[in-house]
Q: What sequence folds into this?
């Protein structure tokens, strides 16, 4: 599963400036414009069906279709030079979390931010993550405008951005052409293009080419993505490789209405991470129990997690194991609770303020903004979106607090990060050839729970051939999970390896901020239209 590029695919990782901003405008093909005009009313109907019962429905419609927007962000500090408004678009919750440290760095540098989201989940996360900045006027927040030229022109006239940032993959042809027309630099940050996304973009080659050509700069996560962006029509001069922002330690701000007092969710030292885990265990009354978290789970993953928990409880050494189950989407909380009830496992529910008792086997953490607490509390983290074909959520979050990670096969959204963590033994993924387990301790582990060894390239190829057997993959996940929970000292050593690696990767934020500011500086020196 390694995504290491060949030498011929190498793209310069220097943060030297983009040579000469391209002022050519590449219009999307006519058929794309026709499709947008046809789909626009259908999209409005879709928004109504999805959101008309929500309190913010009228706000959502007004913002998506260019009828009304919040006020522009303002400069609130006299201690820094104010540079103007940067528009940043993050599709959903994951992209919002990923880009949050970058936005905070830009705010600290004197920029104001206009944040847009596509999904309801992303919008809710943006509102909570940046509640203080929005309240102070440093940041404005809205739903993204539909990709209609008239709506986009209205939006840009209101926001007046000096640059536009797009996070990871989602791009819109009319938005990019309008930005190019107005000489507003457009930058793809943390750019990632998986094989499946690349194939989809290839099917609309003319549209994709116009988008690639209209982008001012593509800051790619890795060389494989950079290669695919070039194949879609971007030039090498447009592309820089800077690593993934997923590595940046991101301490999410908690909802002030949370029932428990706020804790420091990101420890600065290894000693802090251990002491914080102990204090959390005392607070929740779980000291001395093996604990694992199944985090950001999707439909189909909770069943697997509950089955794994039942198997763990059948082991003599693991009869008091606690599973913390954290569904990804709030609208599924009740559904997941019903699944736990059907499993016959003893449950407590976070949203009901139910205490974790000695007999509690599953704790449903149906709350928002507390994920890092559960990662810090746990001895092992199973990161969701990887057992079903979602692409995998960010494994750096648990790694940053010295918690070892397990993921399934579907990690195309973060494969380069997965591989790096696997190489140091901090993350286990079945059939990943680069996984190198940390040295085992002297604690006794039964043969049934012994950790699976790393695979040779030949063995990995053979395993991949038979990887369609989900039961075999789940058995390997159980084996590693049980091995770590039976030997918490070994699990902590694996977690420490991930924590060290995470700290080494923090410079990616500085690199991406520098590249963005270079493009903005170049644009400011261009002759006006």
A:
């Amino acid at each position: 599963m390694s995504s290491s590029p060949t030498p011929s695919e190498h793209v310069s990782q220097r943060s030297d400036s983009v040579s000469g901003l391209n002022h050519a405008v590449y219009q999307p093909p006519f058929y794309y414009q026709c499709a947008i005009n046809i789909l626009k009313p259908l999209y409005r109907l879709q928004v109504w069906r999805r959101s008309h019962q929500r309190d913010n429905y009228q706000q959502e419609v007004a913002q998506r279709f260019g009828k009304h927007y919040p006020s522009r962000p303002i400069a609130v500090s006299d201690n820094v030079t104010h540079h103007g408004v940067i528009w940043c678009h993050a599709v959903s919750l994951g992209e919002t979390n990923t880009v949050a440290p970058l936005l905070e760095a830009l705010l600290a540098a004197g920029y104001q931010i206009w944040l847009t989201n596509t999904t309801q989940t992303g919008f809710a996360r943006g509102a909570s993550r940046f509640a203080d900045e929005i309240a102070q006027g440093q940041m404005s927040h809205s739903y993204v405008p539909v990709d209609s030229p008239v709506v986009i022109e209205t939006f840009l006239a209101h926001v007046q951005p000096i640059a536009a940032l797009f996070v990871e993959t989602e791009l819109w042809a009319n938005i990019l052409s309008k930005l190019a027309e107005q000489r507003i630099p457009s930058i793809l940050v943390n750019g990632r293009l998986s094989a499946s996304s690349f194939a989809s973009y290839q099917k609309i080659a003319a549209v994709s080419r116009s988008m690639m050509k209209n982008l001012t700069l593509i800051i790619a996560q890795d060389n494989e993505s950079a290669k695919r962006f070039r194949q879609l029509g971007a030039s090498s001069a447009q592309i820089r490789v800077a690593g993934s922002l997923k590595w940046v330690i991101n301490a999410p701000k908690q909802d002030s209405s949370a029932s428990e007092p706020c804790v420091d969710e990101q420890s600065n030292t290894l000693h802090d991470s251990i002491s914080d885990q102990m204090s959390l265990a005392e607070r929740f009354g779980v000291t001395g129990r093996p604990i694992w978290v199944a985090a950001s789970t999707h439909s189909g993953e909770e069943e697997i997690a509950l089955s794994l928990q039942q198997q763990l409880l059948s082991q003599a050494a693991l009869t008091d194991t606690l599973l913390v189950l954290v569904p990804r989407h709030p609208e599924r909380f009740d559904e997941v609770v019903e699944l736990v009830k059907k499993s016959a496992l003893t449950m407590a529910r976070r949203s009901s303020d139910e205490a974790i008792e000695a007999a509690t086997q599953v704790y449903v953490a149906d709350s928002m903004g507390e994920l890092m607490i559960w990662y810090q509390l746990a001895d092992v983290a199973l990161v969701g979106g990887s057992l079903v074909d979602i692409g995998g959520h960010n494994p750096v979050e648990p790694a940053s607090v010295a918690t070892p990670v397990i993921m399934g096969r579907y990690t195309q959204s973060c494969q380069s990060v997965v591989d790096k963590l696997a190489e140091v033994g901090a993350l286990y993924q079945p059939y990943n050839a680069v996984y190198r387990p940390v040295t085992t301790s002297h604690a006794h582990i039964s043969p049934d729970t012994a950790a699976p060894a790393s695979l040779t390239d030949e063995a990995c190829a053979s395993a991949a051939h038979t990887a369609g057997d989900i039961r075999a993959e789940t058995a390997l996940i159980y084996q590693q999970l049980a091995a770590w929970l039976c030997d918490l000292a070994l699990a902590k050593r694996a977690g420490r390896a991930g924590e060290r690696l995470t700290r080494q990767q923090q410079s990616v934020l500085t690199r991406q901020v520098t590249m963005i500011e270079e493009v903005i500086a170049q644009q400011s020196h261009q002759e006006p239209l």
